[in-house]
Give the backbone structure.
Amino acid sequence: MYCLASVIMTNWVEYDKEYRVLRPRIFESPDPLSFRHSTLLEKSYGYVLVIDWDGGRILAAKQLPKPLGFAVRDGLLYVATWGGEDIRALRGDEVAHRFQHPWFNELHSIDVTPEGFLVTSSGTDLIAELDMQGQIIWEYFLFEHGFSRNEYRLAESFKRSESYNHRHLPSNLGLHVNSAILVDQDTVLATVFRSNELVRIDRGSGEAETILRGLRRPHSIRRRENGGYLLTNTEAGEAILFDAELRREGVIPIPMPWIQDTMIIGDRVMSVGAMPRSLS
C-alpha cells in the first residue's frame, strides 16, 4: 500500500518552547491579533511524503512550509500550508498553482467539492469554499454565527479589510475550527477544537446544530466508504464511528495521547499522532 502523509514541522519541540513564552504576551496585549509569526516559526518547514507502507520506505519527499491537509484532484496534489498561508497545487515536484487570501491563517484541512475545495482556516475561525481559480465562493466565520462571540478575542478585533497572513493567532483567541467536509450542497460538517463539538452547518441559513458535545480537542471529520463518517477525538485516544444519518455507531480505541487524523482503508485503521513513549 502506498500513502501520502504530511509532516508539519521538524522542530516542533523548539517552537513549542518559544510559543509558551510568547503566549502570555499575546493574551495580555490590548491588540492580540497584531503579533507576527516568530522568526523560528517563519523558518520552520515540513514535508509531504509518499510512503511505501508495507515496504517501510519513503519513496519521495517534498519540502513545504508546514503542510497540513491535502487532497488529490485531476492529477494534482493540493496542499494546505500553515507556513505559506496558502494552498499549493503540486504536479510532481513543481508548484502548478498557488491560492492565497488575506483571511488565511493556519490552514488545516482541505476537501474536494463539486466547485473546487472546502478549507478551514483555523487561525481566523473560517470555513471557506474556493473555486478552481482559488476565489472564495462561500464563507463562514464561526464568530459571525453565534459561536461564543463574547468569549474569544478574535471576534472583538477581526476586520475583514485586513490581512491575517503570518500573524500569530493562538487557538485560545478563537474556536479553532480545524476540519470541514460537505455532506451535500447545503450542509457542512465541522470539528470545533475549543468548544469540543462536531457541528452541522446549513450553508444557506448559517444555522449550526451540534451533533456531538463533550469531545476532547477533536480533529478530522472524514467520510467512510460505507457512507458513514469517522471523527478523530484527539485527546480521548479514540476515533468515533457514525452512520450515514450521523448516528453514533461505535468507537475505535487508538493508543496515542494525541491523534491528529484517522482513516479506515479496507480492513486497516490508519492514524497519525504522537505515540506514547512506551509504544515508540
